[in-house]
């Protein structure tokens, strides 16, 4: 095997380079290599300073996650960190790309850190259900103070090189990593800069030792949205140990916490989710050598709710985009919504003050479809009717350049039928974003029967480029996400007719960890659209219809399934709704019965799993983990439960199938009968994971 860590010497400076693609993860081989090179450099009398750097696209992006759960390999972390920190010669970490997790922890054991302008530094372990286990919770508070340390460790988001410099995490910003690191190492020698260890420096802890509320407030603010998660709280506790205990004892506390989390169900699920997201990017069975098409210009057609959000997603990622409407007036309205959204974010401090203007400048607004002519990718987000979609695609066929990928953001419609009005069905596919499109990460990439492999790859690659989580799905009504939620909505509706109340049903789902239940969701989306569509189709849903007839259209009307106080989005259960339900049921001669939370959970969530099984059976999703990614990023499924298919494996497929049979009988609802794939897996004693 090629050496993954190399040592070079230029006069008095030795450079240790980790070269372990793709992300220089700290595998046992890398740790061993650094240890060996450190010992050689320390022993070499010519060497006066050491630079630790990486080849390829990034600095060390963390411990090697694939080694978690396997027997530990030498060298131990302690041994390896000690050789760096206790080195009698100054060690400079020269960072480019990402210094994350164990990568930043190694850098914190070095005596100095420098980074390139675009580098990101962070401790994202909580996102894997862990806490930093290589001294990060003890050294980072000493490097940047406990407030920022809590933000980085409990929140898990990285900071930029500029912020790292401001906080004292790095000593300088350099042009390039190895060269800048070597220059800095020489400066340390010539200017005789003091060489210290973070473990010995408690100066940045003094303020919090005097006033602990600095720490508790920071923790409260970072854990506000950590409902149900264990890791952020354990991580906060470990940072607390840095304040309260001597360094060595703090390290012990950290390790205890790390090991506990490493064996937890939550972390296992979160690590599964990490790899599931990456697996979803991989398109299998494509002809060899298929690559994405070059995308330089993007156009979005329709500046409504979705088109505006999609254009924002591109601008947020620094990609210029042409936003096209049918009239000046619609365009103006769309642009002003976009500007307002960014300005609100800037006012809240979640994006820089100059970001709205900079991002607006990336949006080129235009009226008329002829403006797509230079675009390599066109995303259509006009009204959801087949006739309008066809009209737009027929025009796109005339105006778009040859080879451009033509994507529809349709929620339900048949991509192939849309493609049929063009002379280039191979270029047509679905890119189904979720609302609000500038925030939600999921993008279903819908493959039609005639879509070309390189067009699919292009859509996946551009979606990743703008920070989305693309999942390739096949063609069916509602694709994966909407199709799978439908049976749950149906059960919610049924439960209402049998006697459950909206707030009971919603509470079961939020207690499970979903961000909201179906009734709050309905209120947010507005109930009138579904009502009008039911009237159009001559379909009835007595309770929902009665609600709309009473003018309860949801949040925008101040009342729907819940009531809302003026200016508030907080749903309040409303006795009027219960009365309305009672009256409707009495009119239908139906009686309410007591329904347990368990029944609600089983009927709603098991029917989701069941539909997932049908989707797998039909090949609409390639892997169970793809379905899980859809739920994690499309509906906010709690990441510590991995996703519905992963969760089903943990619950037990036999139990789920048995309960589905029970509820199907009890409610006389054949849609609850277990899917044949589910039954087969039960008979074979297998899990969904066996299909991966
Ligand atoms: N260990 C093992 N493999 C890793 C890895 C890691 N820490 N980080 C990334 N990879 C793998 C990915 O699985 C992927 O493999 P694949 O090509 O076979 O699918 C490949 O590297 C490239 O990753 P991405 O597709 O994510 O590449 P990007 O360029 O989009 O992102 C990244 C790069 C920002 C580094 C991102 O991969 C990332 O966030 N990685 C995880 C970082 C992390 O969580 N580090 C902490 C680890 S835990 C730890 O350090 C514990 C310590 O405190 C003791
Ligand atoms: P919307 O009604 O807010 O916006 C549609 C826009 O398209 C309008 O501004 C309209 O003026 C414009 N438009 C219509 N014809 C046009 C043409 N020929 N040229 C240029 N612009 C034209 O609708 P919304 O909600 O943004 O939905 C758009 C699409 O996205 C639909 O297919 C919908 O199913 C899908 N979608 C909607 C989601 C949602 O939550 N709203 C979620 C995911 C997908």
TrEMBL record:
Q: In which pathway does it act?
A: Lipid metabolism; fatty acid beta-oxidation
* Superkingdom of origin: Bacteria
Q: Which InterPro entries match?
A: 3-OHacyl-CoA_DH_NAD-bd, 3HC_DH_C, 6-PGluconate_DH-like_C_sf, ClpP/crotonase-like_dom_sf, Enoyl-CoA_hyd/isom_CS, Enoyl-CoA_hydra/iso, NAD(P)-bd_dom_sf
Domain 3-hydroxyacyl-CoA dehydrogenase C-terminal: residue ranges: 478-564, 600-687
User: Does this UniProt record's set of keywords contain Calcium?
Assistant: no
Task: Tell me if Disulfide bond is a UniProt keyword of this record.
Answer: no
- Where the record annotates domain 3-hydroxyacyl-CoA dehydrogenase NAD binding, the positions are 298-473
Report keywords, A-Z: Fatty acid metabolism, Isomerase, Lipid degradation, Lipid metabolism, Lyase, Multifunctional enzyme, NAD, Oxidoreductase, Peroxisome
The reaction(s) annotated as catalysed by this protein in its Swiss-Prot or TrEMBL entry are: a (3S)-3-hydroxyacyl-CoA + NAD(+) = a 3-oxoacyl-CoA + NADH + H(+)
Subcellular location, record wording? Peroxisome
Main localisation, per the record? other
Q: Which PANTHER family match?
A: 3-HYDROXYACYL-COA DEHYROGENASE, PEROXISOMAL BIFUNCTIONAL ENZYME
Assembly and partners are described as:
Monomer.
Family named by the database record: Belongs to the enoyl-CoA hydratase/isomerase family.
Q: What is this protein called?
A: 3-hydroxyacyl-CoA dehydrogenase NAD-binding domain-containing protein
- Name its species: Bradyrhizobium xenonodulans
Taxonomy, top ranks, is:
Bacteria, Pseudomonadati, Pseudomonadota, Alphaproteobacteria, Hyphomicrobiales
